[in-house]
Amino acid sequence: MTIDNFIETVWSAKLLKNWNDFHVFPKTCNRDYEGELKGMGDSVKINSIGRITIATYTKNAPINAPEVLDDSTLTLVIDQGDYFNFEVDDVDKAQQKPKVMSEAMSEAAWGLADTVDNFIATTIAAGVQTANIMTAQSIGTGAADDDAYELLVDLDTLLTVNNAPPGGRWAVVPPWFHGALRKDNRFVSFGTEQSNKRLRGAPIGEAGGFTLYQSNNVPLSGSAYNILCGVEASTAFVEQINKIEPFRPQNRFSDAVKGLMIYGAKVLRPYGLASCQVTEA
After folding, report:
1. Which of 2, 173, 201, 209 qualifies as a FRET site for 156, CA 20 to 30 Å off?
2. Rounded to the nearest 10 degrees, how much is the dihedral formed by the CA atoms of 84, 89, 95, 97?
3. What's the N-to-C CA distance of the chain in angstroms?
4. Cα–Cα distance between 55 and 53 in angstroms, integer?
């Protein structure tokens, strides 16, 4: 591949495909606010409507005056940016240079996705309201250990008690927690093709009312993992591959590619999130 043969659209599509395949936490977010982003520092205005009062109707009696809607505006700032910048020496033309560039682009997508996953996980964890944080548990399969499946049921119940919407609920767990679930017939007997997926970024099954994802980016403090769950409407996320540019570096005989990703996330409905610190027994 040479710079003359570089087609930005093709390489952008390849990066985006790998990016989406590797992602986990963005799949738990509301992506409806993504628009045309032009650079870091841009923002998205999100209007929300407060609760509407329900009154009792009395026959032949006048009803109340129309209620003035209590609307509020939240601002999601696109203040995060990450980039990659790599080159392939001209000597590598003899070693299938297009293949080398393709593999490098895949690695770039993985690195970006991993960084963004960590950012979203941290944002969500910080946005969970105190009432939705469960007491820490020690998860295992022993008689005295807390149960992985039952924890998910309790988290789902906690969300319901705090008036979180019932649909689109998700939970992200670390690999060892997933291992504990796989020893539980209530999880493995789900038996659908979806529950057998093991690809990064794909749901690993359903349990306790949640669509489950597995990630190595579950927030970790010491030996305790902060399992996060919620509904998709709770957190907004916007991102854009801002630019992918090919160039010939000065003083080198090589083709180089650099790319910029800009993004931001914001918790919109804290009552729609819950969490629990867990350790492996």
Report:
1. 201
2. 50
3. 52
4. 6
Average pLDDT, the chain: 83
**Whether the Cβ atoms of residue 137 and residue 278 lie closer than 8 Å to each other:** yes
d(C-alpha 258, C-alpha 86), whole Å: 6
**Which residue is associated with the tokens 């986990």?**
24
Task: State the pLDDT at residue 1.
Answer: 45
* pTM for the whole structure: 0.80
Task: Give the Cα separation of 160 and 171 in Å (integer).
Answer: 14
Residue 217 dihedral angles phi and psi, to the nearest 5°: -100, 15
Pairing mode of beta strands 169-173, 210-214: parallel
CATH architecture of the domain with range 3-280? Alpha-Beta Complex (3.90)
- Which string of DSSP letters, residue by residue, matches 92-143? GGGGTHHHHHHHHHHHHHHHHHHHHHHHHHHHHHHH--GGGEEEEEEE-SST
Instruction: Return the amino acid letter for 90.
Output: D
Residue 50 neighbours by CB under 8 Å, 6+ apart: 69, 70, 71, 72
Rounded Cα gap, residues 178 and 190, in angstroms: 14
- Using a 10 angstrom Cβ sphere, with 0-12 exposed, 13-18 middle and 19 or more buried, the burial of residue 2 is exposed
pLDDT average, residue stretch 158-165? 92
Q: Which of 81, 47, 7 is nearest to 238 (CA)?
A: 81
Q: Tell me the C-alpha distance between 254 and 199, whole Å.
A: 34
Distance between CA atoms of residues 2 and 9, nearest Å: 15
pLDDT of residue 275: 98
Name the residue type at position 11: W
164 vs 81, 147, 234, 270, CA distance in Å? 32, 24, 9, 9
